[in-house]
Amino acid sequence: MATVKRPGGRTARNRDAVLAAARALLEQGREVTLQVLAAESGVHLSTLYRNWSAEEDIIREAALAASDSNLPLPDTGRLSTDLTRFLLKLRDYVRSPLGRALLSIPLSATANRADYWAGRLRRAAILFERAARRGEIRDNTEWSSVVVAAISPIYFHEMVVGTSMTNQQIRRHVDLIIVACRPVARDS
Amino acid sequence: MATVKRPGGRTARNRDAVLAAARALLEQGREVTLQVLAAESGVHLSTLYRNWSAEEDIIREAALAASDSNLPLPDTGRLSTDLTRFLLKLRDYVRSPLGRALLSIPLSATANRADYWAGRLRRAAILFERAARRGEIRDNTEWSSVVVAAISPIYFHEMVVGTSMTNQQIRRHVDLIIVACRPVARDS
Fold it and tell me: Is the pTM for the entire model greater than 0.90?
């Protein structure tokens, strides 16, 4: 039972193994506990305790890593197509076991959730920045409020109303957002 | 302990007493259980069991009744002012103990949540219908998607990001919604 110094790559491999195990459990709809994670990942329970204070931290990291890989930013050369594809994927992610798991983590358990979201919003803003460069929409120095307006109905339907947005509802919402961003001569 | 037939108004009075007790408990941030509700409202526990299957039903009814009274529809004659006032009030309601209690009820426990929301959306659409009649915005046969776009960021910030929208964020969002609804000559 003597502990042995392990080479540097060990920590990263442990981390990857634990996050992969967490993701697999979530996708199967199984409960994620530190004990089960240790068994499934082959990482010692003591190592888990040392690196994460709670299951929630691991679930959040796993869901975060998966959200980046599940949600590529489309680049079709047209904002309405890009945004429609992005929101369809976002809806599917949010209602997946992994997405639901992330949203069901109590807000109190995720201290840096605001930072996480700031990063997510900046990333989605790329769709709008590209469209502005193409002249499709007005330029804007502050895209986060537009991105929030674009993605919020997905979460509202899923978390508050208890339904998923239909494809038609998503397309109608994209039209609304595009009109809101259109370059128009404003009377000043 | 013999039960006695009570006059007809008794049922309604019991209901009001229970909902008022539930609302008071929620506003004080106290836990709502059928036992506590019976004690606070003076209504027999057996009556509570007969009329509601779970605390969640009572919490939902209480929050629903309060949301209608807490959120009057402004009528200032200008959509941007109406919508800003409405969203400021909505934000304050959603982050109140009563609003949080309603949102924390598991979706599975609220079978008719979709109906409830359809009613809420129809009510908020009145703000837009009035503005369309004044010629401020385009006419629309289907306001629910506009209303969803208008209110969703409030819930997204509160439930997902874990922050409340600032007044400035609300004003910026109202501007976006108004632009999206503006009457403009479209190239057809």
Answer: no
